[in-house]
Every structure is written in C-alpha cells, then in structure tokens.
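Reopening this one. Same input as before:
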Amino acid sequence: MEELFQEIESIERTFIMIKPDGVQRGLIGKIIQRFEEKNLKLLNIKMILSSANLMMQHYKHLQNRDFFDSYIKYMTSGPVILMIWEGVNAVKIGRLIIGPTFPEDALPKMIRGNYSIYVRRGVIHASDSIEASNEEIKL
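Same output, byte for byte:
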C-alpha cells in the first residue's frame, strides 16, 4: 500500500511545446505518440500563433544571449502546439523523450535525435523542472 502512495505522490504535470519547425514539418502526431507510449496523459492541447511578448516571457532566461532576438523571431514565425501532460515523473520522462538540448548529443530514439538538426530549430521544448513546468503552464 505504501508503494501506491509513493507513486501517486510522484504524479506530475509537464509543459511541452512543439516549435514552429516541428509543426511545419508535420511532426505533431509522431511527437504526441511518443508521450502516449510512455503512458503520459494529455490534459490540454492548443495550437496558437504566439506573440513576441509571450515568447519573450517564456524565454526570459535567454534574454541576455546574443541569439535572443532571432530566436523570438523564429518562435513567432509560425504556429506552435502547447500541451500539458500528466503522469508519474512526467517532467523527467518528458526530458528523456525529447533528449538533450543539442541534437548532436541526442540518441536516435529521442525526438531531437530523430528530428532536430540545429539547436536553434529544436523541434520541441519541455519543462526542465517541476517549478519551470508550473510557471510555463500558468503562462
């Protein structure tokens, strides 16, 4: 019985975003399938054409980087898919499914290993912590 309560306590929500290149390349279904196969539950999904203001808030941790302006331009260049997934250790599992930030470090079974070529066109974003997930879901 104690194991059951431990599992329930580890149920989390994570924020996943398919970036404009992933949407444009028709990868939405393939990406969703990966999360479903790991027994995560899709709670919410929305397609939007994001404003620069929203993306600037989302990526505020990058605002002092030399690529920030061009990255915001890319992130507002087409629709993005916003998703909230829930499950046991959802944040960690989400990060494992998508792979490392740099596609050259990602294994072929990971989303970035399969579909991403260049770090600034990373196909997908996933929250990297429970705190970040909570903030990103609110945003």
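So the earlier flakiness isn't reproducible anymore. For the record, The radius of gyration is 15 Å.
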